[in-house]
Specification:
By secondary structure, the chain is of the alpha+beta class. The protein is built from three helices and five strands. Strands 1, 2, 3, 4 and 5 form a five-stranded antiparallel β-sheet that branches. The longest helix is centred in the N-terminal third of the chain and has 13 residues.
């Protein structure tokens, strides 16, 4: 009964888990984006590589240095025929530094399956929130009492 890491406010079992387990395929770029974020949270390398377009997919992914992914905020999502775009901000914790990955990702529909192609990074944001700021992990608790 755990919440989905993609922050959809749904349970993982009914949101992204069916995608990660191979029970169903994403029906939109937005679904694929959310499920890939959940895969990063769960360090599911197989799913990440499987949903990456073969023309841009790396041979392998090393998750050993991966940050702790905390939050996903979808800014915009659009789909035009076989092409899709999702702009998002993903908050992470690396050591004691909170950062935000802001990307506009491109997706492509091939043989009725959506694939992540690539993305454009926006200005990097890193730093540490104030002690009394809400924790970026989404817990609703002040940063000093949560991830600090």
């Amino acid at each position: 009964m755990k919440p989905c890491p993609c922050r959809s406010k749904r349970l993982f079992a009914t949101c992204c888990e069916p995608f990660l387990s191979g029970i169903k395929a994403a029906q939109s770029p937005l679904e694929l984006m959310r499920s890939r974020f959940s895969a990063y949270v769960n360090q599911d390398v197989d799913y990440l590589l499987h949903t990456w377009d073969p023309s841009t997919r790396p041979k392998s992914l090393d998750m050993a240095q991966s940050p702790q992914w905390l939050d996903l905020q979808i800014i915009t999502s659009s789909c035009h025929g076989n092409d899709g775009v999702v702009e998002f901000k993903a908050t992470y914790l690396q050591g004691k530094t909170i950062g935000v990955l802001h990307e506009t990702s491109r997706f492509m529909l091939q043989q009725n399956l959506w694939f992540y192609v690539d993305g454009d990074l926006h200005e990097p944001q890193a730093g540490k929130p104030g002690r009394n700021s809400p924790c970026p992990c989404g817990s609703g608790v002040k940063f000093k009492r949560c991830c600090m």
